[in-house]
Design goal:
heterodimer; A: about 180 residues; mainly alpha; Arc Repressor Mutant, subunit A; 2 domains; about 75% helix; globular; B: about 120 residues; 3 helices
Amino acid sequence: MRDNVAEITIPLETEAPMDTTDDGRLERIYDAHARQLYRYALAITSFSEDAEDAVQEVFVRLSRERGRMARTDNPQGYLFSAVRNAAYSILRSRRRREVLTEAFCAEFPAEDLSDVPQSRAVCEALAGLPVEQREVLVLKVYDQMSFKEIAGTVGASLGTVTSRYRYGIDKLRKALEVTDDE
Amino acid sequence: MNDDRIEELLRGTWQPEPPEGMRGRVLARAREETARRRRFDFSWTLGWKPALAALGIVIVLLANMDDNRREARVMAMVGGSSDLRALTPNGDYLRMRHELDAVLASAPFDGRFSDWAEEGDRP
């Protein structure tokens, strides 16, 4: 479990010199952050192609506004906020506010779904959460962000973010306990 | 089931990976944008000096044309001559002045400068 956490922690050495003055740096930013950004975008849009579009949009913007990320105090926060804006923009434009569980759960490896009995329940419970709660859970659970960092990323107050996490985790608990009972 | 267990379950089951080929697509599009941006920067750097010079020439020509028209009008009014042609459909102001002089000279003159010079002549 610890290894898993270490794997998803953002590598600090990529944060300091992050600007986009050359393609090599853009590639380094991609290699360091794409997985997390994609996951976050997917948590918002629920569709793989929409998540890719959101990440694409962020990198195009990075090429266009060279050096902007380097000027921010929190480059990681900048990336997450940018991908959030892009993902919500896609969500609004395509009117796909509802989550299609099948599309969302397509990201679960098939072998996991059969091997771990709770996988399907986790997937469906996560898919069933409102997008605002789901994104907070993803940032907290996967990206190990503090509530303060999450609040900065999603542009909400600390209290709001904390309660979204609370509601989200409670709903997941209920869904998983129902599965256990069955 | 406590929060840690739920988080652990989440991490252990939902692990989305970027689709195959996404890296190439994203970076290619970003490179395209960088190249487009560079072309725009280059053309703007290269082009602003000639554009400014052309604008300066146009301003000078317009100002000069305006001066010429003003000079022609003034010269016509004071009866002077100018080699500049007025921009009217009937020819230059100097020729019009000469035509007016000719009309006045051909009219009979009874010694009075105006029909209204004397009270009794008022209609």
